[in-house]
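Sequence in, structure out.
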Amino acid sequence: MKIAVLGGTGSEGRGLGLRWAISGYEVLIGSRDAARGARAANEMNEELTHDGARAMQIRGGDNPSMASEADIVVLSVPYKAQQATLKAVRDVLHGKLLISVVVPLQPPKVSHVWRPPAGSAAQEAQEYLADAARVVAAFQNISAELLPDPHHEVDCDVLICGDNRDDKAVAIELSQAAGLRGLDAGPLQNASVVEGLTAVLIGLNIRHKVKHSGIRITGL
């Protein structure tokens, strides 16, 4: 299964991509600039080689090219770049699953919960894509500080929101492949709560002077 990570040059996308490559998935790193995407992929391959990890070769390029090749597309860009990124790849997303990692933060108050008119970034993406692609929200609450070290255990659950049970099952599988526990957190409209938790976690990080607070669901 091929996974395109759009915005894969950032810490979160890069970390997820590394972990999936080690788990045997073919990972494609997308960027607005093809050369930057290819450079990031080469750097990731060098990291894996230096680390001695057995992994699938990672490739990189521009967002539309990588998305067109992929079976699953992961959107890992800042909220302000979401619309432009989706517009660039919409024509190649038909029939595919899009996993949104986007959080609608509004600088400078990034520890304050803010919701776009659609309710969440994931719902906004689904409205824009309409029937072209199916959207699931996941990985919003995972610390980007820890993900790039594939050997580091991340003490956080992944809350997954979507309207299709099979799509959420795919996101759960990808969570497990990244060394995380994925949990079905209900329909896509619940993504507003999950995305908002990221602002809460940022506030906790600031007040407790840490960089990687997370959440665990107990009693399951």
